[in-house]
Amino acid sequence: MAHALHAVGARASKRFVLVSCAAYGEDELVRRLFGPAQDDGPLPAIEEARGGTLVLEDIESLPETLQARLLQVLNEQGTPAETRIVAICNLQEQGRTCEDVLRSDLFYRLAALRMTVPPLRQRGEDILTLFTRLSEQFSDEYGCDAPKVSAQEAAQLLQA
């Protein structure tokens, strides 16, 4: 039996646009976020996500000039109440935070709700849940039985 995530809520049928800020050079990122739209390409992400959710992954990689432009767009057009912006910071440098690398005014606009997710190694039960879920998906995809995990094997997974 295949498992799928089912979105619920007012945005369930709306656009969900993911942009990895680290995956593009600055010029490409300008086009992807703000346009202009290419003839055969997608709309700029800000327009594409209107009414839905725009996820900016690796926001710490957004160059300062684009931080200013994003803030300008948010201030000029306002973020429509029906559009959600989620900024994900994957900053791994010791002693630095996303607040340190983003413009303070942009950080303030984006940090209305902050969540810190501990590393998977600190969330033991999640490791087993993920293993079970991925095993079930694999078994469905390849038409085989999902492996059964003994108590000893589960303990080994948690130690890794």
Q: Could you explain how this protein is built, in words?
A:
It is built from seven helices and three strands; from the N terminus they run βααβαβαααα. Strands 1-2-3 form a three-stranded parallel beta sheet. 41% of the residues lie in helices and 9% in strands. The two termini are 29 Å apart. α3 links the parallel β2 (53-57) and β3. With 160 residues, it is mainly α. The protein has helices spanning 26-34, 45-48, 64-77, 98-101, 104-110, 124-142, 151-159; strands at residues 16-20, 53-57, 84-88.
Which descriptors would you attach to this protein?
globular, 160 residues, 3-stranded parallel beta sheet, mainly alpha, disordered N terminus, single chain
Shape: globular
Quote the distance from N terminus to C terminus: 29 Å
- What value does the Rg take, in angstroms? 20 Å
Main sheet, how many strands, which sense, barrel? Answer: 3 strands, parallel
What is the chain-wise order of helices and strands? EHHEHEHHHH
Neighbour order of strands in the largest sheet? 1-2-3
Low confidence ranges: 1-6
The number of distinct β-strands equals 3
The helical percent reads 40-55%
Assess the beta-strand content as a share of residues: 5-15%
What is the average of the pLDDT values? 83
The helix count comes to 7
Q: What structural class do helix, strand and pairing data support?
A: mainly alpha
